[in-house]
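re the bet — no i am not wrong, look at it urself. input seq straight from the record:
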Amino acid sequence: MKAAPAEDPRTASRYAMIRQVLRDAIIQGTALQGLVLLEAPLAELFGTSRVPVRKALNLLHDEGLISRFDGRGYLINPEGLAIEPLRLPLSHTHLGLDSGEELVDTRPLGERIYEEIGSALSTCIAFGHYRLDEQAAAEHYGVSRAVVREALMRLRDRGLVEKEPYSQWLAGPLTAREVTEDYELRACLEPEALRQSAPGLSRDVLEAMLERITQAQQVEHCSLQQLERIEEDLHQHCLAGLQNRKMATLIRQAQSPMIISRIFYRLLGIGADPAMLAEHRLILELLLHGAFDAAALNLKEHLQRARQRMLQRLKVLSVVPEQELPAFLSKIS
């Protein structure tokens, strides 16, 4: 059996993700030996067309993990033995997979590339100033330059990258001055945005936000997804009723502190700050009681305290080793 390098299912093309899921199930022995694999049932199981399934099966056959037989499809047969075909309806169970598991990333390609590039940039910009090569990024992800360019334009709106007159994409550095300026801007704009948006927030929505904070406070270590959802609840969803588009754009572009939180979680395993959760809880409780001015005042104070916490975290990052860069990023300084 030929050895094949594992591919990251987050960044691989769809056929490669299907191949990886099947490959893991076969090698780990969770998939039934002799099970007949057919294109149409697999395509339905993975929620895709037959084309990526066909390519995934061809690769698995080349690798020696599945074999042809006197019938339609392939047999799961990594040892190349003489075994009887096992014709069963294809399901998660027969492949040894969790029935609730999402087998492939079904998001549109552009959305997936946008998040992947954004994640790469968020990790590196605390360590310096970088140049991003558009063509190299397209080759890295196996997509067109148009897909990469669209993702970068959206990331520019978030303030993660900027485009030079000579068509170079630049990112970083994330400095103490930038963090301070972002917080100063947010402390001016977000309280007013909350005053304008608060009357339109439903009680059910606010109670759901409060419940997410309660859940995070009851566990020792909440997930990054939970942490980011809590931050988005207050600093995005609670402000969504703002009618001033220019204010909304400035607030959206001043989110560098979330980048630091994300890096802290990924590199150091440090999640939600208890003080942050308590401050968020107080603001939501005031909103539930209709005390909109008091909620806005507490939001301003929360942002001022959060600035000091983030500056301390940024100092810690100065002694963290730099992370390995994807090929499309090069450090300038």
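see?? Confidence is low (pLDDT under 50) at residues 1-12. told u. also The chain has three domains: 1-106, 109-173+322-331, 176-317. so pay up
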